[in-house]
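B., you asked whether I could sanity-check this one before it goes into the benchmark set. Here's the sequence:
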Amino acid sequence: MKLLRHTAAAVAFGLGLPVLLILIWWAASLNSTSIFVPRPGDLVTTFFRVWGSDRFLTDVLPSLGRYAIGAILAVVLGVIIGVVVGLNQTLRALTEPVFEFFRALPPPVLMPILMFLIGVGDAMKITIIVLGAVWPVLLNTIEGVRSTDSVQNETSRSYGIVGVRRVWYQVIPSAAPQILAGVRQSLPIALILMVISEMMASSSGLGFSIIQFQRRFEIPEMWAGIVLLGLIGLVVSLLFKVLEGRILRWYYGLKDLDNAA
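And here's what the prediction gave me:
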């Protein structure tokens, strides 16, 4: 019964504000004659008409594929490079100015160069996603590895846990809260860059569809694309929250104990 009440309260808190905003939107658009902001009912109808068609296969799935590949590559590269750099003080000092230089470059400005180098296909779009989404993971991993507990380090060495075994069993679990914080930041960045790359150089995808709707003055269809992007971001966030809760179960358990003390 307690779990049921807790779940009902969580659902109420999660849906309360979105429902309130939709009611405000509905009330504000009742007597509106603006063609730029559709009514909620019209938008729902348009949403299912547009994305329930062949567009789901030709535009939504390719975008999700690019997003998934780009985000996964960014996380894998960020963690691997971050662990290597974080474990070596000299390497950290050597790479810091280089990382700061490339981190300051907005990935969209690299698109013209990448178009010349690797063309306008999926490889270019995925590269743009990786170049933008890798930084939160990389920098958080470096900081997480750098700040591992010195007592844990000495204990691992005392028990002969060194090399790859130490990285796998001590360093990465210790740095996991910061690594996952970086992953949480990189996921929406990857989604934004997926849309931008498709808006600028693509013949399919969500970004391409939204910009085509805007150019053809199909305003409800354009809003339907924006809503779909928001829903994708929401679903990704919820899935990541579940995954993070499972991976960091020990961490949240320790925090609960500290708070209870």
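One thing to flag: The chain has one domain: 38-259. Otherwise nothing jumped out at me.
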